[in-house]
Structures are given as C-alpha cells and as structure tokens.
UniProtKB/TrEMBL annotation:
It comes from the Bacteria. This is Transposase. It comes from Arthrobacter psychrochitiniphilus.
Length: 159
C-alpha cells in the first residue's frame, strides 16, 4: 500500500509513469481499482472509497494508492504508547524538514511539557511551511504523514 496526498494527482502521475515501484523502482502502471469500502473519515463522517490499484510490470507486485487523509486514523492510540527511540527519531525528522522548509521556524519553537509534544510542534511548523511554499491546503497530519513516510502511525490492530 502506498499513501498519496491527492488521489487525482496520484492517478495522473500513475498514468505518466512517475510513481516507481517500492520493490524494484520500475514505473507502476494503472491496474484497476479495489472494491468499494466504507471507512471513517477524519471526523465522525463515513466515507465510501475505492482505492486505485497499480501493478509493476517487472516484479509483478500490486500496490494500492491510499489517500493520506484515510491513513491517519490511529494517531491518538499510538501517541499514548510511543517509546523514547521513536521520540528521538521524530525529533530528527521534524528538525530536518522544518529547517529545509523554513529555518526561522526553529528560532523560538513553543515550549511543551514533553519531548513528544515539542517534536510534534516542530512537525506542525514544517507542515505549515510546506503548505505555504507549495501553495496547497493539505491537513497538517497529511503532510506530517508524508514527511515520516507514515512511520508515525501504528499498524492496524486486528481484533
């Protein structure tokens, strides 16, 4: 599964051969859609989605293109049990992206009671700087998900 910011832009990039296979780097090609699914949105709303499917001609792997807004549903649960090694990794990623986009964001970041809050605040600043620079209005968690390659999220719990 690959997380994309905008399904429309990802579809255009897929048709142009601009999305590489994560396994062998060959350009992915469109390969239909998944079945319709009803999922929870960012609020209480329910959304019916049909994810785009892509297939690699060389290695044969199939990827689903998941809109980033749908991948960010388990953040709160993950934040409660985050280990220290992840907090330090978050700091490295946050500072790297914030500095690359807008070095002034690191001059006086807001103080938080925990290191995790401080690092997530830097990520939020980097997300806002990215939106400003790219002239887009993506939700901050969507941009943060792209910065961290969705490693900030816990895997789904199977019950």
């Amino acid at each position: 599964m690959m997380v994309v910011g905008s399904p429309d832009q990802a579809g255009t990039a897929l048709l142009a051969g601009e999305i590489p296979c994560p396994h062998c780097s060959t350009p992915l090609r469109p390969h239909g859609h998944s079945r319709h699914r009803t999922v929870r949105g960012l609020g209480q709303e329910r959304l019916t989605v049909q994810r785009r499917r892509a297939r690699c001609a060389d290695c044969g792997h199939t990827q689903f293109l998941l809109p980033a807004a749908l991948a960010l549903r388990r953040v709160r649960r993950w934040l409660r049990r985050v280990p220290d090694t992840h907090v330090h990794w978050l700091k490295q990623q946050a500072v790297k992206h914030a500095f690359r986009l807008n070095p002034d964001k690191l001059v006086r970041p807001k103080q938080w009671l925990s290191l995790l809050g401080w690092h997530l605040n830097i990520f939020a600043g980097a997300a806002l700087a990215f939106n400003h620079r790219a002239s887009v209005e993506l939700p901050p968690w969507t941009v943060i998900g792209h910065f961290t390659r969705d490693n900030i999220l816990s895997p789904p719990l199977h019950t």
